[in-house]
């Protein structure tokens, strides 16, 4: 199974977003963190910037909505050009309906969980999703240290995915770097959001390649991948 690397533009130069997108053109997706200063204590960008980014790059956009009322706003990000839209289950009023609406508009539907939110209550929702995001830091700011206590949750989530025989991507976001990506891959993640580890590198494109190689080397021998 191929590992996917999604550089987060939260760590990019916002004054040069088109150039920063081009700097990681070998990436699988471009991760776009949308924050509203309500659901999380930070404010980043919205629909107009996503529209501009979609015109500026051929790399598909993976929009992570850390916002209140995603039921209202998420469909607009599909219309703006996002190929994958992630909403937080803690903020969604009707997650199944929202996931179906995102899919109906032509994008991949993804659901995110904060570190303290367990996966088990949402087991029955998994078939409605294309990806599940396990936050490995508290959402809101880039550059945070990876929370090792999330590894068992990643493993439990992968077990549920396997139990139901789903083709569901498992993404991790927060503190993903050369020192942590192998642990995430071993636990069951196959999509990795990396911010400062990519944009803080001298050569962002090479950082993407190196992280992918690390993850794929582990995935080839990981128990969960061998059983898939």
TrEMBL record:
User: CDD domains from the entry?
Assistant: RPE (cd00429)
Q: Which cofactor does it need?
A: Co(2+); a divalent metal cation; Zn(2+); Fe(2+)
Kindly list the positions annotated as binding a divalent metal cation.
31, 33, 64, 173
Active-site residues are 33, 173
> Where does this protein hold substrate?
8, 64, 140-143, 173-175, 195-196
Per its UniProt record, what InterPro entries does this chain match? Answer: Aldolase_TIM (IPR013785), Ribul_P_3_epim (IPR026019), Ribul_P_3_epim-like (IPR000056), RibuloseP-bd_barrel (IPR011060)
Q: Which family does it belong to?
A: Belongs to the ribulose-phosphate 3-epimerase family.
This protein is called Ribulose-phosphate 3-epimerase
Gene encoding the protein = rpe
């Amino acid at each position: 199974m191929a590992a996917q690397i999604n550089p987060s533009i939260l760590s990019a130069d916002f004054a040069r977003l088109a150039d920063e997108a081009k700097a990681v053109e070998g990436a699988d997706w471009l991760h776009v963190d949308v924050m509203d200063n309500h659901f999380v204590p930070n404010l980043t960008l919205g629909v107009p910037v996503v529209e501009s980014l979609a015109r500026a790059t051929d790399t598909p956009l993976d929009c992570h909505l850390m916002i209140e009322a995603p039921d209202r706003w998420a469909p607009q990000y599909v219309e703006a050009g996002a190929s994958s839209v992630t909403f937080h289950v803690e903020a969604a009023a009707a997650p199944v309906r929202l996931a179906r609406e995102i899919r109906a508009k032509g994008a991949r539907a993804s659901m995110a969980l904060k570190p303290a939110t367990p996966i088990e209550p949402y087991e029955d929702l998994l078939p409605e999703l294309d990806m599940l995001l396990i936050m490995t830091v508290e959402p809101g700011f880039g550059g945070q240290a990876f929370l090792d206590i999330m590894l068992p949750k990643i493993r439990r989530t992968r077990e549920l995915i396997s139990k139901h025989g789903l083709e569901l991507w498992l993404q991790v976001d927060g503190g993903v770097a050369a020192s942590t990506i192998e642990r995430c891959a071993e636990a069951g993640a196959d999509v990795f959001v990396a911010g400062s580890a990519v944009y803080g590198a001298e050569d962002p494109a090479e950082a993407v390649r190196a992280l992918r190689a690390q993850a794929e080397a582990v995935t080839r021998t990981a128990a969960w991948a061998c059983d898939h």
